[in-house]
Design a protein that fits this description.
about 400 residues; six-stranded mixed sheet; about 10% strand; 9 strands; alpha/beta; 2-enoyl-CoA Hydratase, Chain A, domain 1
Length: about 400
């Protein structure tokens, strides 16, 4: 498959259709894929012949499992340039979709995680099926819930967004509707017919969704919503852990077990990210914050170690550093969240020049920042050399994730 075939962008009738086309990797996003989508959206933005944009995928495995984790970790183990280029380009795409003037519809049929959420969540219509599995699982590999997680998760009710960010819990269609992650539920068998109807009459999209609407069932998360609201209300991760310990119920103990497997650093990063994201006045302001985080986290010990443990060697025994929640200091977090030099900050735009100096952050500066803050730096070695499985080296496979939802 050529790079041009990784995303199929074309106009069908009055619909601009974007089909993710890397089924062997559950459509894990690459920088090239983000550029192809950005270029198509930019071309259609002022085209009167395009009334609606549709996002879907080829194959049966899912909508999108996230980003190209192999590339990110490979780059992070070196100078980090390609990883920052990916984040910069992907976040511009996220912002473009968020602010796009024309209606957008995404079919979240199957796995929708990480980068897939960044494509689907900004759309006006978001269709879930009985096969939908949503998660923001990044804390399990030393990353953070980006692509707008600071904006969307912080605006969910009852601290559920924080619970999703910290635990990486996987939820299904009914929960997605409850949390407005999905706007509609349609049985997967009826999706092809619905797509055909929308392509024929995009102006009737909302009415068609009503006609095809199914019953997603009762949201499983409802049984624990009150507990989440109470136990995840703390201003610090230490307070949340203390509240869970003090409760001593089976569900609370399950959450403690799950949190114990996650990176202490990126859990604290996620908490601060959501706290700041809730105060952001614009989506772009949130994305600028997330780019600062990503530019540094991608070269951190915990990300490289998390990928090794979960995806490459699959021993599921990462050695986090710092190893405990208490050992992660505010000063360390301040470094991760601090502004970049003005010529290296993220900015919204219709495209990202691959030669843009914004991606050319001096790796020596990043190394100095990270080590000065007390973190280990994974500078030179390539921990992903010669991985044993083409699939796991490309995508953050959700079968390795622990769900935070136990009923």
């Amino acid at each position: 498959m050529s790079e041009a075939d990784e995303v199929l962008c074309r106009v069908e009738g009055r619909v601009g259709r974007i089909t993710l086309n890397r089924p062997q990797a559950i459509h894990a996003l690459t920088t090239n894929m983000c550029r192809l989508m950005t270029d198509a959206l930019a071309a259609w933005r002022d085209d009167p012949g395009v009334e609606l944009v549709m996002f879907d995928h080829s194959g049966e495995r899912g909508f999108c499992a996230g980003g190209d984790i192999r590339m990110l970790a490979d780059s992070g183990a070196g100078d980090g340039r390609l990883a920052r280029e990916f984040f910069f380009t992907e976040y511009r795409l996220n912002d473009l979709i968020f602010n796009y003037a024309k209606p957008r519809i995404a079919f979240m049929d199957g796995i929708t995680m990480g980068g897939g959420v960044g494509l689907a969540r900004p759309c006006r219509f978001r269709v879930a099926t009985e096969r939908t599995t949503f998660a923001m699982p990044e804390s399990g590999i030393g990353l953070f819930p980006d692509v707008g997680g600071g904006w969307y998760l912080s605006r969910m009710p009852d601290h559920i967004g924080l619970w999703l960010a910290l635990t990486g819990a996987r939820i299904k269609a009914a929960d997605c509707e409850l949390l407005q992650i999905a706007t509609d539920f349609v049985e997967s068998a009826k999706v092809p017919e619905l797509k055909a109807a929308i392509l024929a009459a995009p102006d009737r999209t909302e009415a068609l969704l009503t006609e095809f609407e199914g019953d997603a069932g009762r949201p499983t998360i409802a049984a624990h919503q009150d507990e989440i609201a109470r136990l995840f209300a703390g201003d610090t991760l230490e307070a949340i852990v203390a509240a869970l310990k003090a409760t001593d119920t089976d569900w609370a103990n399950d959450q403690l077990t799950i949190l114990a497997t996650k990176s202490p650093t990126t859990m604290k990063v996620s908490l601060r990210q959501l706290q700041r994201g809730a105060r952001c006045a614009t989506f772009a302001e949130n994305m600028a914050m997330e780019y600062r985080i990503g530019a540094r986290i991608v070269q951190s010990h915990d990300f490289i170690e998390g990928v090794r443990a979960v995806i490459v060697e699959k021993d599921n025994a990462p050695k986090w550093s710092p190893a405990t929640v208490e050992a992660v200091t505010d000063a360390q977090l301040d470094t991760i969240f601090s502004t970049l030099p003005s010529d290296q900050e993220w900015s919204p735009g219709a495209a990202a020049d691959p030669e843009d100096k914004l991606h050319r952050i001096d790796p020596g500066v990043v190394k100095k920042e990270v080590t000065a803050a007390g973190f280990k730096f994974e500078g030179e070695s390539n921990v992903l050399a010669n991985p044993d499985d083409d699939h796991t080296k490309t995508v953050f496979d959700p079968v390795h994730l622990t769900s935070g939802l136990n009923t």
